[in-house]
Amino acid sequence: MSGLKMPEANRDVLSRRAEIVSALRAIVPGEGVIDARTEMRAYETDALTAYRQMPLVVVLPETVEQVSRVLRYCFDNGIKVVPRGAGTSLSGGALPLEDGVLLSMMKFNRVLDIDYSNRAVVTQPGVTNLGITRAVEHEGFYYAPDPSSQIACSIGGNIAENSGGVHSLKYGLTTNNVLGLEMVLITGEVIRLGGKHLDAEGYDMLALMTGSEGLLAVVTEVTVRILQKPETARAVLVGFATSESAGRCVAEIIGAGIIPAGMEMMDRPAIHAAEDFVHAGYPLDAEALLIVELDGPEAEVDHLLGEVAAIARRNGCTSSRTSTSEAERATFWAGRKAAFPAVGRISPDYLCMDGTIPRKALPEVLSRMQDLSKKHGLRVANVFHAGDGNLHPLILYDANKLGELDAAEAFGADILRLCVHVGGVLTGEHGVGVEKRDLMGEMFNEIDLAHQMRVKCAFDDRQLLNPGKVFPELHRCAELGRMHVHAGALPFPDIPRF
Ligand SMILES: Cc1cc2nc3c(=O)[nH]c(=O)nc-3n(C[C@H](O)[C@H](O)[C@H](O)COP(=O)(O)OP(=O)(O)OC[C@H]3O[C@@H](n4cnc5c(N)ncnc54)[C@H](O)[C@@H]3O)c2cc1C
């Protein structure tokens, strides 16, 4: 693995591998335990393919009882556990550990209950995001958060990453659409949070768990809110001669009080890559493209389309095309949703970054990104959720060329520092994982991080669940109680810094 430092492997666990495998086989019989290297190869990385590591063993439980017993066994024997859904994480959240059990939740693949009167679906965590919509669409319902990976990614992974999508601008991220969870703690205890009802007493543990990146518990059941499909949805493609004018148009639309169902921006390299791949009819002469979708009652959509067109004209748009059918609307989105694989066709490798900035900083950040592209000698293609300021710069590199991965990582780190510098945050929707772990110090000071770590310790004081992710260093949980930071001096210098 490049220069990425992970927690040191436990030699005792490595030497007991055969005994551990047979103990796990006793809990999950049949084909639920994979220990052959060739078969484990499929699990050695997630969608952050720059990093790879074979796990100690892969376990695929089918029941909550099996999950509970596996976790209890690992707890009792000091064995690390990395939960995994579909493995589409772009931040390396599901990257295995040499001395850790990789716990795949993909056999939990059933929708358990569809409750239209409560507008809720109860599902197992391995069901895909799109699978939930597929289960209810014949009744005119859908699940709103729609990551571009929705055909593959699991709802359990969505919970762990607090995933979003093009419709999150209006309908919220995963955290705004999850109603309840069943989770298994590292001790094997099963807890339930929330349910079909709207509010719960006490601390908002549901929000704490959503986005916890597999560090606090393993999700075994999810209850989500479903929505009725809007009467009408239409999308408009608007081309601009500069990213600055497209950025101003975005700000003016939101400033006018219009909340589109989605508002996405792509720059010239991304437009060309997507158009070559999907033939969505994107304007190839544009430097920046906005895809704006409006939904609701037909009369309202017609009115808002007129408003958006007027704002786009005021900002000097060079082209504008509104969808006239459902098929055409889907084609407009197909290019955007396939933008990542499309960019994969024009470069052997790419790093997909994920940061969020205040909308008004968009023109400045885009122009600074061009300077960074020259500094690091690598191309960048931009695809982003313009409405909520969530950037996805795709840094193009070739892993086979000496030094290019290091240059891409340095470029990515500079982009994330820039996001923080203009008042934004390190992550939007892809989580911290290993990708942004070492940059957490750019956003949080030692005291902030120590408090976040205390939450981790409350659930997993032996630090067995997904260690090496999110936190840039390990603190022994007992020592956090005595932690005191003086004049920025790093406490406990003997504790591993990754
Ligand atoms: C082409 C492409 C496009 C993408 N587009 C988007 C996008 O538009 N928006 C977006 O938000 N993301 C996007 N992603 C990122 C990714 O799809 C999401 O982060 C997704 O939620 C990951 O789900 P997964 O099932 O693949 O999880 P995995 O990759 O398997 O795991 C992700 C994290 O979740 C944890 N985890 C998984 N299952 C569980 C569980 N049951 N219990 C506890 N922890 C668990 C893992 O430990 C890990 O930390 C994209 C990825 C790709 C490859």
- Which fold name fills CATH's third level, the topology of the domain at 232-340? Alpha-Beta Plaits
Query: Which stretches of 5+ consecutive residues score pLDDT under 50?
Result: none
Sheet bearing the most strands, described? 8 strands, antiparallel
Distance separating the two termini: 13 Å
Computed CA radius of gyration, to the nearest angstrom: 23 Å
Proportion of beta-strand residues = 15-25%
Could you say which small molecules are bound to this protein? flavin-adenine dinucleotide
CATH architecture of the domain at 232-340: 2-Layer Sandwich
- Average of the residue pLDDT scores: 93
Protein name: Glycolate oxidase
Keywords: FAD, Flavoprotein, Oxidoreductase
GO molecular function, one term: oxidoreductase activity
Domain FAD-binding PCMH-type: 51-229
